Structure to design on (946 residues):
């Protein structure tokens, strides 16, 4: 039997949007601030981000990347160098016009992304093929002046990482684009337990200034898409615009080939909307800041001793834990452990110990498991792995059940409002892509395959690709 | 014999300022950018910062602190709440006046420090004594619109951490102020090998809005002071201004007591100006991103085998290393290892191995030590500890030799231009403090002791304190 719900959380099936913001607030992940469009990431939310950063940073370093720190500001003249890029970002930048009590001679744009800053630096440090590749990454805050904001999903300030690399050959840069894309996929599957659909964006949806954009598309519980990471191949577009050149092995001047790739705190939003429920957060063990919550019920010497032993054992195994011994009712503590999404709750009272047993509660299923008190630790270890796997598999099954192959425009017309993704055959024209967007409010997610033996569902000419469409955050 | 200097570094004794910027550039720590007053922290410089962050973050967490993320912006009305604070920071803020192609209704100040943002949040989350203490820290970028900038020392953008805590009692807040101050001192002594003078700032020099400021003052090689960290006690000043209240155990409404404390990338500047020399950077082993540089001279199978073995051994011991096998002359590699400040250089050639020996070179002294090839690893381990200790002790001796007890104004008049700190007796008045500043260009560093049985060197009335004066960065 599930515990009584004492937190103030709207039902997920009743109002998904309200449910999401309730979970975010009740789990103490964020607070709103007096700064419109900016949120405060509270300790528990930030601890999730720190875990993500640590894992990803290791993955980046193991693949040869190093961290740097670029300026926060972009002088307007620098920002304006690459035309497509400017066009894409100009409508949503924040601009500093005063500094040190004076009006600035040149306006400063707060970085919405840092391609131009990296290029400006690369121009100075790249001279020879020996200087390449440059595999740089930056963890920082960017600013995009959004009109409508939502915690973690759309915010004026975003904590993220942006990788920026330069290569001597097109082949190498393309490999890098895919390598990092693959790292994002692995991270989201293995750590966040989020199944993702991966593929290339259409011309219309690609990043401003990129030649190609690869995207990680996750489907939320309600069937809506979350773009949860992108990797871009720029070719020589920026390196030509910025005049970056190197002498190759044959002593010829060449423009290097570029990539960039990024993920952000948006992944926390994806984590919530994939796994959480009406009792609050559900976190996969591998990314949960606290893996085990131990709740003593009552107190006596024997119980104290048991708690001390389990603490030592968990510490030795590097399993993070919290002992919930605050002066509150067991019901309060159960609800608190649930809203925080601690993967396993250990309930233990005097009577349990007399009987030689302890109760483990899985947060993902709320299933209760009675185990011998001497076997708590191996059970916890096993259960953590099991929860991680089960969470992924459940999300995968749900996702797959909400992907619909749609062969005609009529089929789409009768089903487009169903939650999920629609896989359609498409001729590759922006006109047909726009037409689906306008009629059904669906945006292309990414290209699945080349499919040339079918017809485009819009114009009925030969198809080029099989492509996912869906509503998006 | 020291290696030939191949890098372009001005002599430290000839022109300290030029030497400093040469070291910073030649060691690839930073690059200048097209953004006036902002620097690019390059991978090697950022790796030093990452090491500092990791150690400090652990020290903060071990003392119960948690990380959060506050907004980058402060609405002007929020910024203006605490008067002393505004007065201190208003002249050097950067202001966002446009966002999303529109003029903003309210100007947004980019945080120069975040006391007001934390207070705005605390007002919402502090209700009862059970909510206290709140021990928060934030790693972030702040902006202060400085007119003159210098890499790491004075910059428009600063990477730092700012701790902000709230407590139920004055006693507890005062303890916290000193605890964190002590952590900074320990970190700088034990990791950076920088001896520091610690004490309270005068009323004139304290942080804008604080009741008391404690400072960590380091003396650079040239005798000039670097304020290298501060910890502030605010009392109830901000909590009253912001209307933050909690119900104490007796059910009475009370304003909590506050602290804040911070250190920044400025510590990298302090590291350089304390230890480095005409050959480049000298880094203490505990903070050096790369502790050992192995330089193979020539190549044959036996040498390759030796290199493989030493790599494995260093990896097993978690001693970071680089194998400098690039296609350059040994002289070039020696100079490169020196400018980068790798604490130990291992030089090994075919003939050395035939003789069964290897040469270790200490970066701090450039001393060469020939050791048995089978004892390289224990020698390296021992040497790393020794270098760390020796660097601290040398810096301490130099610092102590440049502190002068000055008993009369005449003595100060004849010596004020000597490099170093002057310890004087002082009546405690701002008038006398200002007089020393104006006549000699010396600013008070911090109060050493209470000294009441002497006379103020300026006004000759009874002294209150013994206090350090010095020139500063």
């Amino acid at each position: 039997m599930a515990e009584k719900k004492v937190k103030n959380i709207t039902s997920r099936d009743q109002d998904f949007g309200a449910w999401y913001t309730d979970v975010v607030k009740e789990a103490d992940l964020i607070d709103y601030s007096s700064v419109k469009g900016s949120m405060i990431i509270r300790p528990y939310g930030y601890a999730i981000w720190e875990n993500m950063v640590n894992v990803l940073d290791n993955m980046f370093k193991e693949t040869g990347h190093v961290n740097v720190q670029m300026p926060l500001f972009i002088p307007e003249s620098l920002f304006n160098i690459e035309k497509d890029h400017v066009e894409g970002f100009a409508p949503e930048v924040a601009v500093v016009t005063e500094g040190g009590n004076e009006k600035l001679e040149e306006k400063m744009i707060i970085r919405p992304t840092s391609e131009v800053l990296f290029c400006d630096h690369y121009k100075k440090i790249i001279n020879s093929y020996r200087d390449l590749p440059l595999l740089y990454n930056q963890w920082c805050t960017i600013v995009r002046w959004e009109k409508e904001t939502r915690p973690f999903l759309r915010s004026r300030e975003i904590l993220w990482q942006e990788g920026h690399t330069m290569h001597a050959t097109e082949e190498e840069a393309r490999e890098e684009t895919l390598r990092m894309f693959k790292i994002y996929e692995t991270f989201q599957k293995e750590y966040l337990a989020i199944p993702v659909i991966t593929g290339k964006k259409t011309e219309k949806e690609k990043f401003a200034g990129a030649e190609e954009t690869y995207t990680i598309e996750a489907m939320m519980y309600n069937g809506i898409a979350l773009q949860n990471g992108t990797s871009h191949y720029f070719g020589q577009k920026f390196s030509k615009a910025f005049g970056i050149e190197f002498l190759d092995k044959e002593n010829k001047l060449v423009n290097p080939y570029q990539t960039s790739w990024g993920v952000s705190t948006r992944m926390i939003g994806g984590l919530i909307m994939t796994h959480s429920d009406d009792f609050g957060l559900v976190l996969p063990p591998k990314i949960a800041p606290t893996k085990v919550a131990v709740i003593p019920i009552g107190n006596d010497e024997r119980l104290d001793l048991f708690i001390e032993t389990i603490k030592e054992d968990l510490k030795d195994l590097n399993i993070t834990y919290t002992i919930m011994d605050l002066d509150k009712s067991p019901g309060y503590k159960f609800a608190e452990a649930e809203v925080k999404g601690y993967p396993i709750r250990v309930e233990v009272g005097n009577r349990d110990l007399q009987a030689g047993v302890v109760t483990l509660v899985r947060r993902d299923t709320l299933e209760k498991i009675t185990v011998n008190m001497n076997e708590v630790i191996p059970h916890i270890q096993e259960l953590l792995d099991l929860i991680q796997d089960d969470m992924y598999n459940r999300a995968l099954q749900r996702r797959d059940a909400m992907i619909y192959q749609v062969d005609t425009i009529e089929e789409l017309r009768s089903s487009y409002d169903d939650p999920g993704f629609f896989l359609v055959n498409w001729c590759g024209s922006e006109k047909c892509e726009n037409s689906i967007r306008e009629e059904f409010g669906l945006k292309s997610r990414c290209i699945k395959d080349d499919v040339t033996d079918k017809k485009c569902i819009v114009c009925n000419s030969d198809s080029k690709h099989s492509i996912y469409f869906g509503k998006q955050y």
About this structure: Confidence is low (pLDDT under 50) at residues 1-5 of chain B.
